[in-house]
Amino acid sequence: MTEVSEPAYLRFFPYGEPYDHQREAMATISSAFEDGRDVLFEGACGTGKTLAALVPALEHARRTGKTVVITTNVHQQTRQFIEEARAITRQEAIRAVVFRGKGSMCHIDVGYEECQALRDTTRSLVEAERDRDDLGDRGDELLAEARRGESGAAEGRQAVMDELAALDDELEELREAATCEHYYENLTGDTDEFYGWLFEDVRTPEEIYERAGQLGFCGYELLKEGMEGVDLVVCNYHHLLDPTIREQFFRWIGRDPEDVIVVFDEAHNVEDAARDHATRTLAEPTLDGALAELEEVTDPREAAARNVVRAFREALVRTYDDALAFGERESVGDSWYDLSITNERGRDDLTLAFLDAYTGRGIHEDLDEALELGAALDRRYHEAYKEGETRTRKECRVLQAATFVDDWLRDSDQEGQYPVVSVRRDGGSEEVYGRAELYTCIPRQVTEPLFDELAASVLMSATLRPFDVLGDVLGLGGADGSDGQGSRNGGGGGGNEGDGGPVTMAYGEQFPEERRRTYAVDVPALFASRRDDPATQREVTGALEDAIEFTPGNALLFFPSYREAERYHDLLSVDATLYLDEPGTPVEDLRRRFVEDGNGALLTSLWGTLAEGVSFDDDDARTVVVVGIPYPHLDDRMEAVQDAYATAFADAGREDPGWEYAVEVPTIRKTRQALGRVVRSPEDFGVRILLDERYTRRARREMRKYSVLEAFPPEERVETIDVDPGKLRFAMLNFYSDMDAWAGAPPRP
Fold first, then answer.
1. pLDDT tens-place string over residues 176-216
2. What confidence score (pLDDT) does residue 361 get?
3. What are the start-end ranges of the E strands in 54-206?
4. Which of 203, 284, 624, 627 places its Cα 20 to 30 Å from the Cα of 445?
5. Collapsing DSSP states into helix, strand and coil, what is residue 698?
């Protein structure tokens, strides 16, 4: 009987035997790489997504001369990647680098522009010192030749001495200029020991920072210099989603985009992250700084630049003054407050005000001169800092303002761009100031070019479905609209084989079903119009009190907003400690105190930082409750996204693509993420509660368009059990009794 050989990629698998579903996922991903196709990979907690993606990616990259990049926007996931990479390199040696932004790795704490100027000056100093050494050696050689009487040696030596004198003057100036001693050591010291240490294992950014500091080096620059040709890079989203940084990043790893395989973890966040990276802003203080900067300029282009900057500032102030209703200015706080500037005349109010305020010879002619002047000033500031004439690297406000105005005139009326004016209060003063913003509604404008360039990509998360929505929004094209689910608890399946679109696969819960329960509690729907109704509040409060009292340990409660969390924090009366997560406050200490309590309830917003990327394992939390359907606040900005999606995806075959793509699908993903905070291992157990009648099966028949159960994947719908509010306590008591979870006597129902 012929023995079947194991796939080559399994040599990168660091632990015994992979799970059956892991083996299947690796085979699917490996095949997709061979075809140059992207992969959309949903896997619940316990699926082993990281290794299922990394193992075939590393083998394919090793065989084809590529580099694998795995990226996330969640710090906890970065730590997991490091552990997995360390395990892999003990099985099959790989060269891996964990890369973080300069801000967290700089030993002298300077900005990017200052750092660049310091590097340039330091490099010039080192090159001049090397040139002087070379000239000194040549001078010694010519002196020896002259003593032997060789023809022309004396004249040649005199020319060298003249060059040395000039070089000494240059060196004196460079040594007085601003340089970086750490980067100087990089260029002049022996870095072999550092690189030997770096690639012995997978080092964390903290370890690199400390080791480089001990040796006197700049670890950030050493990483950039040492990443070329590595097998694996772990980094943050912005290294790939910011077009400027991405270009540099690929240069640092010595790869063209078509030689890079990217694994996006927590990929349900890519949409918002891409939108943030594409959005451009210009605040009033920057315009003020640009005008002040022009006061110091003697240049024939100054008048043109002033025309543009002054007119845009006047237009910005006029626009937000006109947009603020009577008494509205007094309510503005220290957070940006959006004002609608759209109108029925075609262009937005700010553009019309700018055209009205401008009085020069021609906007585009003046703007071209403003851009030229800004670029010249920026070069001048760079040289001044480089030469030590200034202590800091000055930013060019003229260039920033002119660049934004140029973008605004070109893009503000383009499809998918939403022009916004916002205001905020200036510290503790009574004054408000404004900001213009070009908000990008459709993130595929950022992501589609990236995915088109890459060799392949894997987008993975516990909450990616529906795949067709993700594919449309990110520009992956051709994603299967099915759930990609072959069986209730883990069967996978590829979609789109043969059509060139992404391969899709989904694996449901991998842990024993009998160790979890999901209840849809039939309390009144928490529509915004009903939230202040006392009868509704009493029903919700009663259900929440039962959920807390009949949990043998800690309970997590997620609300549509921080305001609702605070409301029920004040209404609840339970024999447990209540912890309230408030906006703008650090959660680390709150989470620690809650976890240590053992009989607490933590109330927070589903749109806060605790709803995803944070695990509550075992006794950390037993029950999780999602109260209501946590739709985001539907402001003008969200309306703009809905309108853009409705237009862009009108042919997607959905009844209301604007609402579904922009609101419903992201909300259900957030809800599923929150439910996934508990039951994190095969031995763990817990209860997940959806507290709103719109989650029930009855709502599918009676509430129709308001029902949301159909928005969940099929295997999750099957597990959801409808419960009357009065019977929730009995259901929980029975489940936790089956789990033998009560250390003492259970509470009396």
1. 888 889 999 999 999 999 999 999 999 999 999 999 999 99
2. 85
3. 67-72, 96-98
4. 284
5. helix
Q: 591 φ, ψ to 5°?
A: -60, -45
Number of H helices, E strands in the chain: 28, 18
Identity of residue 476: L
For residues 424 and 284, give the distance between their C-alpha atoms in angstroms, rounded to a whole number. Answer: 11
For β-strands 555-559 and 623-627, DSSP reports them as parallel
Say how far apart CA 732 and CA 544 lie, in whole Å: 12
Q: Compute the distance between CA of residue 115 and CA of residue 117 in angstroms, rounded to an integer.
A: 5
Could you write out the DSSP letters of every residue in 337-389?
EEE----TTSS-HHHHHHHHH--SS-HHHHHHHHHHHHHHHHHHHHHHHHTTS
Contact 661, 443 (CB under 8 A): no
Q: How high is the pLDDT of residue 319?
A: 96
> Alpha carbon 152 to chain centroid distance?
66
pLDDT of 569 strictly over 60: yes
Spatial separation of the C-alpha atoms in residues 378 and 144, rounded to whole Å: 49
Bridge partners (DSSP) of residue 432 are 425
Please check the confidence at residue 490 and state whether its pLDDT lies above 90: no
Q: Which stretches of 20-111 are DSSP H helices?
A: 20-34, 49-64, 75-91
Q: pLDDT category, 108, cuts 50, 70, 90?
A: confident
pLDDT of res. 577: 96
Residues 238, 269, 493, 12: what is their CA dihedral angle, to the nearest 10 degrees?
40
* Pair 263, 460: CB distance under 8 Å: yes
**What backbone phi and psi angles, to 5 degrees, belong to 304?**
-65, -45
Q: Which of 446, 32, 511 is nearest to 243 (CA)?
A: 446
The torsion defined by the Cα of 613, 683, 624 and 505, in degrees rounded to 10, comes to: 50
Matching residue, tokens 């609300």: 559
Using DSSP bridges, classify how beta strands 337-339 and 232-236 pair: parallel, antiparallel or unpaired. unpaired
Beta-carbon contacts of 228 under 8 Å, excluding residues fewer than 6 positions away, are 252, 253, 254
- Please, which pLDDT band fits residue 489 given cuts at 50, 70 and 90? very low
Of 38, 23, 21, nearest to 457 by C-alpha is 38
CB distance 246 to 450 below 8 Å:
yes
Distance between CA atoms of 98 and 95, rounded to whole angstroms?
A: 10
pLDDT band of residue 478 (cuts 50, 70, 90) is low
* 611 vs 82 pLDDT, higher one: 82
